[in-house]
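Objective 1.3, modelling of assemblies. Example input:
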Amino acid sequence: MADQLTTGKAPAIAKVVATRRGRLPFLTILGAGIVLAWALVAIFAPFLSPYDPIATDFNAILQPMSRAHPLGTDSLGHDMLAQIIYGTRVDLSMGLIGVAAPFVIGIIIGIIGGYFGGLLDTLLMRLLDIALAFPFIVLVLAIVAILGPGLKNYYIALAIVAWVPYARLVRAETLVLRNLEFVEAARVLGYDSFYIIVRHVLPNAITPAAVFLMTDIVLTILLGSGLSFYGLGAQPPTPEWGRLIAQGQTYISQAWWISVFPGIAIVLMALGFTLLGDGLAKQLKVRQ
Amino acid sequence: MSANLLSVEKLAIRFTTPFGIVDAVRDVSFTLERGEILGLVGESGSGKTITCRSILGLLPKNALPPAGRIYFSGVNILDLAEVELSQIRGEKMSMIFQTPTTFLDPLARVGEQIAESLRYHLKYNHAQGRSYSIELLRSVQIVEPERRVSAYPHELSGGMKQRVMIAAALACRPEILIADEPTTALDVTVQAGILELLRQIREERGLSIILVSHDLGVVAEICDRVVVMKDGCVVEEGTTRDILINPQAPYTQKLISSHPSIDLNVSTQVQEDSRGSTSADILKVENLSVTFKATEGVLQHLFGRGGAAIRAVEGVNLNLKQGETLGIVGESGSGKSTIARTLVSLVPPTSGRVIYKGKPLEEMTRQEFMAYRRAVQMVFQDPISSLNPRMTVNQTLAEPLLKHRICPAEEVDERVDRLMRSVELPAELRIRKPHEISGGQCQRVAIARALTVNPEILIADEITSSMDVTIQAQILELLEKLRDEMGLSIIMISHDLGVIQKLCQNIAVMHNGRVVEYGTAEQVIKLPGDPYTRQLIAAVPHMPVKASL
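Predicted structure (tokens):
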């Protein structure tokens, strides 16, 4: 059936593919819905939240779920629902900001190494091997431990370490594209390398990296809340979900809700991005 | 002897695809006699491969049960269950494929692969299998079969792999051999050897062969009868001689007239052309050599010691005159593409000079070099991958105009229009992307893109080799028209002497990185001086009569 590519029936096929692309699988829509819902929660937090998340109320310490506090309160009388709602802002932005630098750095390193090859590529890839030689989480922990706790240092640690998979993915694509004839044609037409990379290589090389980006957001959120759990990430009183879980640890037998509800929130956010990422990967595979 | 060994009656095959049900083969009937070589000819999508696969019961999963009948020694194959079919396959009928590289298991020794069917069908033991494999390898004319029997596929050349595949297919002494484009991936001199082998095997074993091919030349060379297919239907059937000399169906006539066979009798029409001889050299290649270093690692980088060097091009001299078409012909690995890539500065020359209008490239200023880059444009082999899949035809053609400021921005639209007209592309394709147009159309876009920068020299590197002959004929015609209208000089690179002769005044024959023969088309083809050229010309499959169309 590959023959149809050359027999002029292609336009009809393109139309069919376009309509099929419109019909997304249920799980992808579910994932997109979850992500969208969290984004809305983050944006409209002040309107949705019943209380100020960091207002202490010593008359309502370790309250179980009630009409006044739908998800209960913690040991300082903070309302859990309010903290989770405001925590959306912290965790969502942690995922998005955390992947931004690695994404950009990885793409630049991968595309430059793949396109120019030679000594430059060899050096960049050895750099990559060095970053890869240390276990990822241990390296992030070490960097954060040296720079000091806090989300800003977490982002710096990610920028130093987490670009590796992006560089690998983009380089692999670039190696193939570099020898494709449209890229050579662009060189023959006398375009400069920068232009060719930006206009002809990048748009065709970025797809796998973009798919991995979705998975990476999940990993970044999980690792970030993990760090906060250990006290290396968000600092109190920032209502970060991982930190909230850690906070409830001491009271787990009397007030389980302090740890459980932020945990559910993390799971739901991770689920949303995972489903969306899987769906995206499948759609792109269909197109190719 | 003349009993029908196989008869296909009113065969129809349909596929379910995501785009609905597709008729692949409709109402196909033909017969195969004992000891006959039957050619099945058609262009891509004509259903010839599917027809063959249905004979072996090897249809893809999305095929609906075929209608019609296929009788093999009195039994309708289409009624057989899979178990019974597997008895026939290999033992009674076998098949060889287009790409021996993917057919052979890279991890198994050649002998084991040949003996596999013997052990399965005829219960040979290991030693028997091995000794019979050696015998088979000898019969397909592989030298030193005792050594080759324990070789791995990657140790063999393309032609030898194809011979191994034939040996494996012959192992159980089948009555029918189906050969699906057995020589398409091979060089002509190798192809000639394989065709000769098939003919001998037929003589020796009384085998019947169905040869599937898009190449009328190949079919003319060895087939007794020919079935011509188009769009899943049989267009014409008859003896090879009848079909080639006196084709009835218009499609067959078109196929024959499109076939670029070389012509030893008629002098090339471009010979008297005065432009070629009087005008000045626009491009000169002096003593050009290109050497590639084999794989480099970090240590080699650091210590500056390269791996083994591969000489791709050695001491090549060529001249190109204004308005001339120079053909470079050679088999794979002869270095012809490397020359093209050196001329457009994709590959640096190791030694020697390229001189453009009297000025060597290395003495050019940056500005002069940029002008040279634009003056020499290239069109590539694979039409689909030569276009950026994310850009529309319009974007592809407008890009160089804007980027190099060839014309004011407001005129770009009109320019693109004019370019599309000059390569005969309908205007409505402007908004299409490469995967939405056909291969031939993609190649036209690629040619138009090369023309955007008003080049003086166009290098065409195997630009028609992935195309059906009728499309190929159209593209060659287009090139001829562009050359005459725009005064282009063209360097045409091809493995196909027929294509080269159609268009070129001068021909350079390349072999192992050297130009072994260089002269006017007439000289080279009629009076070849070099033994390799003679071999090359003799290897090209001939049609018995040049069609008088």
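Residues 267-277 of chain B have pLDDT under 50 and may be disordered.
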